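Let's practice the habit of predicting before peeking. Look at the sequence and jot down your guess about where helices and strands might fall. Then scroll down.
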Amino acid sequence: MAKALSGKEVVSSINKSIKGEVSFLSDRGIVPKLAIVRVGERGDDISYERGASNRCAKVGVEVKKILLPDEVPQDRLLSEIEDLNKDETVHGILILRPLPRHIDDSLIRNAIRPEKDVDGITDGSMVGVYTGEDIGFPPCTPQACMEILDYYGIDVTGMNAVVIGRSLVVGKPAALMLIKRNATVTVCHTRTVDTPSISKAADLLIVSAGRAGIVGKDYLREGQIVIDVGINVNDEGKLCGDVDYEAADAIVEAVTPVPGGVGTVTTSVLVKHVVLAAKRQSGF
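Done guessing? Here is the structure:
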C-alpha cells in the first residue's frame, strides 16, 4: 500500500506559517488584503470565492469583493482592476475565470500588476517562473505540488521527473519549478509517443492530463512518487483524479489522493501568496 500524501497536513503547516507572518505584519500596522473580482454568477466561481474567503478569514487576511454583472463592459472591468492596482491597502488581486466571451482575457489578466498577481496568471508572473526571479507569483496549483513535496521531505534533486500535461496553468510551470529544484524533467502531452513507457521510468510523476483515471498500472512502477493534479467527476458522480488511485496504491511508494490532495493545498497557497505580497510591498 502506498503512502497517502494528504493535503490536510500540508494545509495545517502552511496555515501555521501564515498566521506567524500575519502577526508580524499586524504588529507593524499592516493587514494583508486580497481583492476578489467576480464577473457573473457562475456556481463554481461562487464556490471558489467562498472557499478563498473562508481560508483568508481563518488566518487574519482581509477580503475585498468586486462583484460585477455578466454583461459588464470591458472598460469598466479594466477600470476596477486599475483602481485595485493603485489601492495600497490591497496586496493581492484574484480574478475568477473564465471571463464572459465579450471580454479579452489576455488584456484583463495582464492589467494586474505582477506584484499583486497572487494567482500567477500574468505574463509577468510567467517570466518570474521562467527566470527564477521574484517577479509576481507562480500559479497556485503547481506551487501546491511543490508545497506537498517540501512538507513530506521529498528532495527531487537528480530525480527523473515526468509531467503529464503542458498547460500554462499547471504543466509548464510545474516542469520549470522542478528544473529549478534540480530534477531532470520530461513533459508528456497529447502528441507524445508511448507516454506509459516514459511515465513508468519516472521517479516522480506529476499528472495534469484532465482525464479521469487515464494513468493506470501501465504508467506506474514500484518506488514512484505520484502527484495527481486532476479533479474530475466519474460515472458514479464521485470526485476522482487523473490517476487510477487503486492501481497506484497497490504499486507506487506514495501518491496524493483525490479529493484531499493537491486541490486541498491550492487555496492555502493563494493565501500564502497574499501575505508574501503584503510583506514585499511593505518592504519586508
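How did you do? The domain at 140-263 is CATH 3.40.50.720 (Rossmann fold).
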